[in-house]
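Q: How would the structure tokens look for this protein?
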Amino acid sequence: MVQYVSPPLDLSFAALSDATRRGIIDQLGRGDASITSLADKFQMTPTGMKKHVQVLERAGLVVTQKVGRVRTCKLGKRGLKAEAEWIEAHRKLFEARFEALDEIISEMKQEGSDDSAS
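A: Here is the predicted structure in token form.
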């Protein structure tokens, strides 16, 4: 059986597939925050928040630092450049395919109107 190791894009997209984790990224974009303050903001337990933060941390989107009893979270330095490039490449691909489909539909409509005029 082939073992599959998730590349960084898979980890990032999996992490960002959850609305709470996207919210955490938004919140950390405004400033660093503790697990407790994030848990309060999202109305969940610190344990639940820690699990979300761990997913983001594995993807390299968030880093944490523990000082005493407080674990502070901040955005990772990796950013989302590779993800944005992947999305842009696929956006262009889809755009080109939709434009080609629009041309086919226009041609079909034109042929249909030509046939009904005869």
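Strands lie at 33-34, 62-67, 70-75.

The chain has two domains: 8-75, 80-118.

Upvote if useful.
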